[in-house]
DNA sequence: TTGTAGGCGTTATCAG
DNA sequence: CTGATAACGCCTACAA
């Protein structure tokens, strides 16, 4: 009934616990017959090694911590999915915590995960990257290697701190350029959460795109937002209130874009006829809106995978470097040529 | 540099490690001054107890395992969010794994989590509930209490197995009744994943609703699906292909309904004019579709919270019982009276 | 009130 | 190749 341990097996096999331990981990110095015998016995008894006990002695828990702003955000969910898959393929588990977009909760969550001695920490869309420098913990006794920290969608210089990012500036620039080629001259931008780094980068990309395409900067066309569905209605009001209103909007992410689509439909603003809309992320839902959303793809699952791969590399003592993945414009239906105003 | 342990503190405070241990956990039998002194010292040194070491001796890791089909499903994400919040409030962490809807992977994932000695296991939308009977592991040495298993959105009889469910039959019945009152007589149903229990229950509720409202069963109106966005286009084709086509459809979940909405828009089928659509779950996005989706609310976050609360109760030796939460019809725009056919 | 000793399940370092 | 033995960091009788 009670879980079978290595000593139970040892007793039954008439060997010492250490022999069992070796047999189970395919240690070289053990006779093949013994090994086979013990492995078979272990299987028969349904033996499962205690990760906790193992973790105590080895200093590795075969576990990565993941802290994210909110799983409910499809972008986050996709990254998490990729990370989970990669982790499991390598025999790792994922200890998960949420910050609800609060920097304080984020750090708290990270501390808790570190208390559980995760072998690495992955933070998706960190709101407090600067704080991690001090927080470096979890030294491996033997190698002296810290638990690596991987920032997804953010960046911070520091020992043992890595990042997996998307080329936000490039993506945003490409979107603006696309709109310009479609014929738009008044292009608005709905910004993302104030604290986030990707917000700043996408805004920068938008601005670069505006300038590069020979358009004058128009501060009144940059609206604040939070990267949520709820941004939509509010943003639409603001957009329509501007003198010489925009004919196109690029949104911080798909969620805001979808919110905007809904608000536009409600207000009788035709998309893309009267207003072109572009999102960012290419979440699965963006292909199922009406009209289907034109957006900038971000390789979400790949970012999750890369994050755990980075952790793994660091733990193996291999070289590791920050990763920047490219986005790609996905043309669908929500952006089109600006329509001539009927006088 | 290396993490400070209880003996480091003991040395500095000129006391024994056990005294430190007691001071840190507010043990009654210790002098207040010592306790204060030690706690202060611990704080100053930045001491953090090793959950791993503690777990090894106490048999409790302050961790619950969660295995879900796919975080990318908004329903799952919401449940997970509720669970995470409740867990953290109680000082627990969540070890997370995904099954990708595969029964085999689900059980594997559960085993892995159990290897990490989670104090309880929460399975969201299990596809293999029968398998858990055998799998009962993780006996607490002192109390002899097994790690409880909580099935969210499923059910299975067994010692230490509990469930948190939604009244799927009731919810589906209510939706059908609503459609009937709107005037519909030909009401279709797009089913969910074949293996899932909620699929069966919602289908049953649909059938009950059909009968209770004086409509004859029409097997040709029950379509298969998987609870995904991709169900939409396919289902629409099937729907339109039926002789005497339905004027309303109830979908297994919001995802399928949203897919259907998109397909309908593409095909020029007006909703709700030509076809009324009702979903299930009330995911955040359902309020932002065009038209906004009428759906059956499921208290997702509450289900997650209840799941960890159940685990906690069992661990405390308190009484625990299965939980059934009620749904509620959320009337929005995607369902309306059937429109008269223009000859 | 405090210290001592034993142990949780494994791995790792020694001798044999 | 195998078997004692000592950790890993913490908790908890039991003894003082």
- CA-based gyration radius of chain A: 26 Å
Total individual domains of chain A: 3
Fraction in helix of chain A: 40-55%
Question: Per CATH, which architecture of the largest domain in chain A?
Answer: 3-Layer(aba) Sandwich
According to CATH, the fold-level topology of the largest domain in chain A is Rossmann fold
Structural class computed from helices and strand pairing of chain A: alpha/beta
Terminal residue distance of chain A: 83 Å
Run of helices and strands of chain A: HHHHEHEHEHEEHEHEHEHEEHEE
Major sheet of chain A: size, sense and barrel closure?
A: 6 strands, parallel
List the chains of the largest interface with their residue counts: A-B, 58 and 58 residues
Query: What is the CATH homologous superfamily assignment of the largest domain in chain A?
Result: Response regulator
- Name the CATH class of the largest domain in chain A: Alpha Beta
């Amino acid at each position: 009934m009670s879980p079978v341990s290595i000593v139970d097996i040892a007793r039954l096999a008439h060997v010492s616990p250490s022999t069992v331990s070796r047999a189970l981990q395919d240690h070289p110095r053990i006779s093949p017959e013994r090994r086979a015998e013990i492995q078979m016995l272990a299987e028969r008894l349904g033996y499962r090694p205690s990760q906790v006990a193992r973790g105590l002695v080895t200093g590795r828990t075969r576990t990565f911590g993941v802290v994210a702003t909110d799983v409910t955000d499809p972008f986050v969910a996709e990254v998490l999915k990729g990370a989970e898959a990669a982790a499991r393929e390598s025999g790792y588990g994922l200890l998960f915590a949420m910050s609800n977009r609060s920097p304080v909760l984020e750090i708290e969550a990270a501390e808790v995960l570190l208390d559980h001695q995760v072998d690495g920490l992955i933070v998706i869309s960190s709101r407090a990257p600067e704080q991690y420098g001090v927080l470096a913990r979890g030294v491996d006794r033997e190698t002296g290697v810290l638990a690596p920290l991987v920032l997804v969608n953010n960046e911070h210089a520091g020992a043992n701190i890595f990042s997996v990012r998307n080329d936000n500036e490039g993506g945003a620039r490409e979107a603006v350029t696309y709109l310009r080629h479609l014929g738009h001259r008044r292009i608005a931008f709905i910004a993302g959460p104030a604290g986030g780094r990707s917000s700043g980068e996408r805004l920068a990309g938008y601005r670069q795109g505006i300038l590069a395409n020979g358009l004058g900067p128009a501060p009144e066309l940059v609206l604040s937002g939070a990267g949520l569905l709820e941004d939509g209605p509010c943003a639409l009001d603001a957009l329509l209130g501007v003198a010489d209103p925009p004919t196109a909007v690029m949104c911080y992410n798909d969620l805001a874009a979808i919110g905007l689509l809904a608000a536009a439909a409600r207000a009788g603003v035709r998309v893309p006829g009267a207003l072109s809309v572009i999102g960012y992320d290419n979440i699965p839902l963006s292909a199922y809106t009406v009209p289907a959303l034109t957006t900038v793809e971000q390789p979400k699952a790949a970012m999750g995978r890369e994050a755990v791969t980075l952790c793994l590399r660091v733990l193996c003592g291999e070289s590791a470097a920050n990763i920047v993945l490219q986005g790609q414009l996905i043309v669908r239906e929500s952006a089109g040529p600006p329509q001539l105003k009927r006088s």
